[in-house]
């Protein structure tokens, strides 16, 4: 008698939905054959981690997986590192234990900067930024979009101060090199991203 | 009698020592057999 | 037809998302056009469009080459739905109503597909869609919706976030295996999804705990219904393994959730799942460390942590309805008439068929017994804080005498159930573990039981052994009591008649 059952938008599906309420209120004591078959088919179609992975319909040009031989698996390369690299539990964040984050700890700065500047908006860019800031102590400047690094130089004893700090930045526009900042560089915390 | 859970704990990424490392945020699937690849956890990229 | 028009529009949507990033302004322009052209401007047209898009997506999944990209259309639909939840300005319809409408349409299409093509039904496209809704919403909510530039919208979304998850959880409750068995494995994967379970357990002020508990209880009830003594189907045993792994993950990341909800979880856990029961009861508060339970010289009275009251998310008193008054009155001033009232109210109106170890049905309501025993423990813990320890660590106290009398005057089944629930309270170091340890130790050697003492001792040992002989983990409090019983010299366990009659138990105790 409910209006919804007269509504052409719903009346062809509602009875099926209502039907399921019976077994909710009064589950079968013994599993009927049909239900056992449905459970079986559910087990066979059980979604796996690839089904649960993040959907990417559009891949930026550069971040498309480079053409590999047809024998390579075409699933996203998210193989699982088996060995425990020591001290993993220090950072305590949820990424430390993932294979990709572990792989990035092995990359050199050049590669990390390449990923950061060329894989915009991707998880890989996020991990590269995380590796640069947490493990390599670089800081990202929101204004000029360069990564900066503070170098502390231990001075030999006898000088008026024990250490000298100097700054470097990675020049991704022209030389693709880490260069020394000129002497008038002043570190302004507000310009840097809190990652 | 249940089962020896050490392999299940290992497949979950729960370390033997007492240090807790969050596992649910990178939980691939309820079963080890269907957790054949890692899944992308939530992440945030500042503007 | 109108539906085919919707198919065309949706196909365009899918194509656009394969060419530009979902945050590109082209995408917003396309949505604007859909509104201007009346595709999604009224709820009726929106419903028809979503129905068409979902049917087309599921069809495209079924027709795609399984080794290729089978989810392209479904992924595009997920992005559209969340985009609409985020970017639209909700003045006539609220965001909650809009979300409910979307889920309702998905449910209706899903129910028809699940029922009509029963064995040919495939759960994967629906799993993928719901998983994507979690993921897309998770992207939108990153750093507290920092990516939403519009201030007003950002504020609305922050306020809507908890509601989004609770609405989603209520639809997952409708999708549970009793209702949709062909969606069972997808459902187990969804309730434990990396962008749902940990979020529900960490929403502010535990706002997701209640609904998350309902979903886990749905899972336990399904297992309980179809775990038969003699046979368990493959599917059910795989569901069990998945459940065990999920609870282990929760115990690792959010032990407090298991600690504060053990009462409700145990009310619905299958009786024979001892290892899963131990996993739930072995949860330890984050950062708590505690002494080795096998150290025979350990005194609980010396442990600071054994004075703390464990927090309980759902007060068992809520389940005591008519019994609340008699129990509380008895705790204040014990009386036989109150005791008779309590003893008379623990029985069920009809048998509860359970797959227990050593029994097939219960005539005593195990939930009522669990509620009474835990309530007594909670009150004893509070009394211990309010007045002093010897007010409750004393066989004359009303807390002790109520449990004692329920055992003394109760049937063998009631004896068993009261003792079993007391042993369930032996967990990590806290005042419940300490007090029930005291009560059980006392009862084990209490002369007051007279000729019932052998039965009481047998039941206590049985309730401990069934928790100790299974594979680890073993709750700290159970290990403590086992060590104490083995080391106490008032009763030589190996001399007990009922031990001698079961050689394998006798041998095991000798070993222990």
Please specify the SSE layout and strand pairing.
The complex is a heterotrimer of chains A (195), B (47) and C (512).
Chain A: H1 14-25, H2 33-44, H3 49-52, H4 99-104, H5 109-118, H6 123-135, E1 138-140, E2 147-154, E3 163-171, E4 177-180
Antiparallel strand pairs in A: 1-2, 2-3, 3-4
Helix pairs in contact in A: 5-6
Chain B: H1 6-12
Chain C: H1 2-19, H2 25-36, H3 43-63, H4 72-87, H5 95-116, H6 124-140, H7 142-145, H8 151-174, H9 184-191, H10 197-202, H11 209-226, H12 234-253, H13 255-260, H14 262-268, H15 274-281, H16 324-332, H17 336-344, E1 347-356, E2 359-364, H18 366-386, H19 389-392, H20 398-409, H21 412-424, H22 431-444, H23 453-468, H24 476-487, H25 497-500, H26 503-511
Antiparallel strand pairs in C: 1-2
Helix pairs in contact in C: 1-2, 1-3, 1-4, 3-4, 3-5, 4-6, 5-8, 6-9, 8-11, 11-12, 16-17, 18-21, 18-22, 20-21, 21-23, 22-24, 23-24
Describe this structure in words.
The complex is a heterotrimer of chains A (195), B (47) and C (512). Chain A is 29% helix and 12% strand. The radius of gyration of chain A is 28 Å and the shape is elongated. The relative contact order of chain A is 0.07. The N and C termini of chain A lie far apart (58 Å). Chain A contains 6 helices and 4 strands; from the N terminus they run H-H-H-H-H-H-E-E-E-E. Chain B is largely without helices or strands and 47 residues long. In chain B, 15% of the residues lie in helices and 0% in strands. The longest helix of chain B has 7 residues, at 6-12. Chain C has 512 residues and is mainly α. Chain C is built from 26 helices and 2 strands. Chain C has helices at 2-19, 25-36, 43-63, 72-87, 95-116, 124-140, 142-145, 151-174, 184-191, 197-202, 209-226, 234-253, 255-260, 262-268, 274-281, 324-332, 336-344, 366-386, 389-392, 398-409, 412-424, 431-444, 453-468, 476-487, 497-500, 503-511; strands at residues 347-356, 359-364. In chain C, strands 1-2 form a two-stranded antiparallel sheet. In chain C, a hairpin with a 2-residue loop joins strand 1 and strand 2 (359-364). The radius of gyration of chain C is 28 Å and the shape is elongated. The model of chain C has no long low-confidence stretch (mean pLDDT 95). The interface between A and C is large, with 36 and 59 residues.
